[in-house]
Amino acid sequence: MSTDVEELLREGMDRFTTGVQAPDGLARAAVRLRRRRRAVRAAVACGAAAVIAVAAIAVTGVAVGAPARSGAGLTQARTAAYVIGRVENALATEHLVLRGHATSGGWGPTITWVYGARTRFVEFTSHSCGHAAPSGACTHHGGSEPYLAQGDAFIHGKRYGVYVTYFDRKWSGSPGWETMPASACSRTGGLEMSGPAIVTSHWPAFIKATLGCGAATVTGHVRIDGKEATKITGSPVTVRLQGGEARAVRERWVRARWTLYVDSKTYLPVRISGSNRSFGGPAPSYVFSSVTDIQWLRPTAANIAKTLVTIPPGFRHVNSPANQ
Amino acid sequence: MANDRMAEVLERLLAERADQLMRSAVLLMGSREAGQDLLQAALERLLRHGKALRGDPEAYLRRTLYNLAADGFRRQGRLQRKMLLLRAQAQIPVDEIAEVDLRDALVRLLLQLPPQQRAVLVLRYWEQLTEAETAAVLGWPEGTVKSAASRGLRRLRELAVSWHQPELQQTGLRGQQA
To answer: Looking at chain A, which residue has its C-alpha nearest residue B111?
Structure first.
């Protein structure tokens, strides 16, 4: 009997799949999906909703973790108050240039430059993907080159937000730029903290507001590169993705977590570690995590110049990042 | 890997094996659309791990395909699959030869089994792998494969028995009437 069932099952499976053929262009579609995922991830990390039309994030639902208010909450409140007091006396970061170097498993490194309200975020190909073809597919092993850039550019004297993809030599833009969040109290603020990009140029105010609203708590002290650092852990946030982004990544939600390490003397950030997990759609759940090490540099002309995106000559302008 | 080799390897692999992989994916998911989604997701993972293309890309792709399926890829699609099955059930012609109907019914039941059991049965009876080979593809202990196959087959046998019972009863009734 059992052999019969196995044989019938085999025949049934054969009948069920008779005439099934793989559609054309499977490889190209997979490459496109991967490319979109990369671009969308960069958009999620950068919070560039206004610029990336296809990746527009409509925040419609949220679950901000509740701040600690009871039990150990009193101690926490005192610690937060102490840190907030110290932050108020911290250096004004808008007069320094921030350089953030982020690494993440499986993805290429990123470098972010911030000066005042200007930002430039560049993602490089990983060592296992030395060069990306115009299709977005990796072509060889070893080396690293710019893959995409996002940030501010001056075009004919006017400031624009631009998105440049080096592999297909295209760029798109929109007037103006998304304003930086004032704190991680908002869902988008919390989401942006989970990515490799740097979210603000007003760190003391950002930390003060974030601790004040309970979106993060002081969770300890550690040593980073020999210096004492205060560890600030953000409450996880869950953000619903809608429209183009949800379609592009075929997922519905992003769950973001982050930890900020600030120099215990200056209260300038020295490291951010974050992760975001997209889930809830037909595609398998996807986790992206990164660690960004931060340097503070003098505002020399050369350093300031690095905070702007330059569109290389010969790159083609397209209307929307969806075409990149 | 030399320039452009990666894309070439993938194109060549799919030119030779895409239909077979697609059939496996359809069996694992229960419909062409869901099967295509599964295969697409597996291909994307293959692209993400360029190293796999330098080794045995088909083995990596197959392993990813089955593991995604066994992990409950497209979990929320269960309801859709059930609805598909109900629709398919309603379309069974009553005068079909019993043996042929049973084959269809077995496949429909296969699609209702938990993802792990389904993946094992497809590997064992569609891909015709041994238990050891199935365990290697899924990265599971052989004992886990054995028990998943055993549980899945038990459900299928129960169906086969219940399928034949009305037929037997009907035959018995005819005998009494004669």
So the answer is: A13
